Amino acid sequence: MCSGQNVIKMPRPRRRRRIRGMPGKLWFKPRGVPLSEIEEIILNADELEAMRLRHREDLNQEEAAHKMRVSRTTFSRILKAAHEKVTTFLTTGTALRIEEPDYVYIPREFNCQECGHEWNAAHGEGRPSNCPNCESNKIKQKIVKRPKKQVGGDLKCHGEIEQAQEEEEN
Known about the structure:
Blueprint: E1 27-28, E2 40-43, H1 45-56, H2 61-68, H3 72-92, E3 95-98, E4 108-112, E5 118-121, E6 139-141, E7 148-151, E8 154-157, H4 158-169
Parallel strand pairs: 2-3
Antiparallel strand pairs: 1-3, 4-5, 4-6, 7-8
């Protein structure tokens, strides 16, 4: 048995959060002051997403937490941190940098049943209606096989889980 003296407690790994988009500009600062002369505040991508969902989409915290796939208490902590950073930025003349999320981009892959053309489409752009090559509407999304995961006693493919979660949201 361990006495607890040399035990290092490691935080659990951070869960991936769903971020729907990033703004075109990642830096904001007071006009006329060189960036090299002012302190910067870093707003994480999940903090920006929390503010967008709560204030732009006008979702309550429960709904917004579900969209980001985090608990309501985690969402509340993220939103509070975002409000503190934006308030500091607005009241102290510092710069605000929006940190790009650390994620792996996996595009959706489609192919045309008529001409065989294959292409990628970004998430959030909706399902393409026509093939960009021949304009046919006979298109299919390629299914990416992922390892199985135990969920509620049933073995389910990650793709099935994500598809069910997306259907819930829409």
